[in-house]
Design goal:
Shape: flat
InterPro entries: AAA+_ATPase, AAA_lid_NorR, GAF, GAF-like_dom_sf, Homeodomain-like_sf, HTH_Fis, P-loop_NTPase, Sigma_54_int
Distance between the termini: 91 Å
Strand content: 5-15%
Keywords: ATP-binding, DNA-binding, Nucleotide-binding, Transcription, Transcription regulation
Helix content: 40-55%
Number of strands: 17
Structural class: alpha/beta
CATH architecture of the largest domain: 2-Layer Sandwich
CATH class of the largest domain: Alpha Beta
Domain Sigma-54 factor interaction: 220-449
Number of domains: 3
Largest sheet: 6 strands, antiparallel
Radius of gyration: 38 Å
Organism: Actomonas aquatica
Protein name: Sigma 54-interacting transcriptional regulator
Strand order of the largest sheet: 3-2-1-6-5-4
Bound molecules: adenosine-5'-triphosphate
């Protein structure tokens, strides 16, 4: 390798050719590789082991050892070492100043021992001797440098050098001091990251416990952890006047959540005004929201109060807020910022004290990018976002919701519908619910109306739910097979309802006992199975 300019101009031979050719140039390259290695991975190990490899490959040094002072116990601990014959993790080198490694860390000065075998004394800890046993036996040298970050000592970095290379220990020390500077940064960065990560983890556990214990608001069904998170947020925000933005797919329950917030708030006895921004034509939305003066436009025969005025002192729920026009966005922004507005066609400035809850299923961030939603309005409404998850992400809520709607619509329609059959439950569970809770509610309402025997069967559910597997008709590729599957289900249901008594089940199905017996044989149904089953 060629000399670098610095070696040549110094008019002295290049520093010893340990790296082959000019050591300075090689060191520079290696240091670059080392800093790249140290920036990898979240765990210290993922950075240190590649660093050891780079150093040993480039320099002929061996047996990298990293010790780090524990920030909790103050002990010096072997964090990583290259020689995997030594169980590093069990090596605690004790408090600073005990032993040889501790002395280097405490003094903050590097140390070089040219001949380990001749130097190890009783001052060394047994753990240190174990750590370097192979190097002592091989007559190697030890170069140890402190690791610092700013002025704080973090630990030590050491390598050994086989006997043949002992002439270069000074250059090794200088090189390792530079490496130690980079290692110090890497260690400190990961210590801080780990402490923050642990603190967040603890906070997370605490919050999850709180969420598990948190209240379940009346009228909101579902105990899935996703919904508990919603309840937790409702609980946190309800009593304040903070603007809330509820997000989620259509039918997921955003309006239900908004109503719950109002019900749980101190404004419960004050007005609650709902506005569906998507349902109002652009031409009238402003006058709907802010009212208009008499004669403001053709047809404005008298003064009309807007929804904000009607909600004075209470709460306004702006559903589908993503649908409002640019002009209305500007006016809304002013209301949110200053609490003032004028009626359409009016000059009098009105002051409002209204808590705003908004909801949308639109991607507002994308709308901001497109220029169809104002960023400043977004900041004003996105003060406390609550995300209502889609039903397919909280399947454990499906049955509870289905039972809730079953009871509601049975009561409303004066019907004694008591339960949902197992195949129907399977279908409800297997479906992907693009219309979310609203779709489930509509389906149960319809099924309650269709049911004649107090049970919701799979055939009471609409064809969109007939996913084959769920309705036990997965292999029903022909009409005959589908009919068989349905017949089988009806027979099983009848047997369940009549505790396995074939005569009663047959009567219920309008069959003779003999015909039902033949069917049981055909479908390999054992009626005795239902003797203890729930009626
Ligand atoms: N967790 C729930 N518990 C009980 N009923 C619910 C729940 N979630 C939703 N519902 C009911 O489902 C139906 C649809 O809910 P809601 O109108 O709140 O949905 P949404 O997200 O506001 O829909 P959209 O985006 O179409 O306005 C309503 O009848 C509502 O009462």
């Amino acid at each position: 390798m060629e000399e670098c300019d610095r070696c040549a101009s110094a008019k002295k031979p290049p520093t010893p050719a340990l790296f082959g050719g000019c050591r300075l140039m090689r060191e520079f390259t290696v240091l670059h590789d080392i800093s790249t290695a140290l920036s990898q991975g979240f765990e210290l190990r993922e950075a240190i082991l590649p660093m050891f490899r780079k150093v040993t490959e480039a320099s002929g040094l061996r047996r990298g050892i990293l010790t780090v002072l524990s920030r909790e116990s103050g002990d010096l601990v072997v964090e990583e070492l290259e020689d995997d014959s030594v169980p590093a993790k069990s090596l605690h080198l004790g408090q600073l100043e005990s032993g040889y490694f501790g002395a280097v860390a405490a003094s903050g000065e590097p140390a070089v021992i040219p001949q380990l075998s001749a130097t190890v004394t009783s001052d060394w800890l047994p753990a240190e001797r174990d750590l370097l046993r192979a190097a002592i036996d091989a007559g190697e040298s030890l170069i140890m440098v402190p690791i610092r970050h700013a002025q704080e000592i973090l630990g030590t970095l050491s390598f050994t050098r086989p006997p043949a290379g002992q002439a270069h220990l000074e250059a090794d020390e200088r090189f390792l001091m530079v490496v130690a500077g980079q290692v110090g940064l890497a260690v400190r960065f990961r210590q801080i990251a780990k402490e923050r990560f642990d603190a967040l983890k603890e906070e997370n556990v605490r919050l999850m416990e709180q969420i598990q214990k948190s209240f379940i608001p009346e009228g909101l069904i579902g105990r899935s952890s996703a919904m508990r998170m919603v309840y937790f947020h409702v609980d946190q925000v309800a009593s304040s006047k903070t603007t809330v933005l509820i997000r989620g797919e259509t039918g997921a329950g955003k309006e239900r959540v908004a109503t719950t917030i109002w019900e749980a708030s101190s404004r419960k006895r004050r007005p609650y005004v709902r506005v569906n921004c998507a349902a109002l034509p652009e031409s009238i939305i402003e006058s709907e929201l802010f009212g208009h003066e008499k004669g403001a436009f053709t047809g404005a025969l008298s003064l009309r109060k807007g929804r904000f005025e009607l909600a004075q002192g209470g709460t306004i729920f702006l559903d589908e807020i993503g649908e409002i026009s640019a002009a209305t966005q500007a006016k809304l922004l002013r209301v949110l910022q200053e609490g003032t507005y004028e009626r359409v066609g009016g000059t009098e400035t009105l002051h409002v004290d209204v808590r705003v809850i908004a909801a949308t299923n639109r991607n507002l961030e994308k709308m901001i990018e497109d220029g169809s939603f104002r960023l400043d309005l977004y900041y004003r409404i996105n003060v406390f976002p609550i995300y209502v998850p889609p039903l397919r992400e909280r399947r454990s809520d499906i049955l509870e919701l289905a039972d809730f709607f079953l009871e509601k619509y049975a009561r409303q329609n004066g019907k004694a519908v008591l339960r949902i059959s197992t195949p129907a439950i399977d279908m409800l569970m297997a479906y992907h619910w693009p219309g979310n809770v609203r779709e489930l509610e509509n389906i149960i309402e319809r099924a309650v109306l269709l049911s004649t025997d107090g049970v919701i069967h799979s055939y009471h559910l609409p064809p969109t739910l007939q996913t084959g597997e769920a309705s036990n008709t997965a292999s029903a590729s022909t009409l005959a097979e589908a009919v068989d599957a349905l017949e089988r289900e009806l027979i099983v249901e009848a047997l369940k309802n009549h505790r396995g008594i074939v005569a009663q089940a047959a009567r219920h199905l309008g069959l003779t006992e003999r015909v039902l017996g033949l069917r049981l044989k055909k479908y390999a149904i054992d009626s005795r199975r239902f003797r203890t089953a729930e009626a």
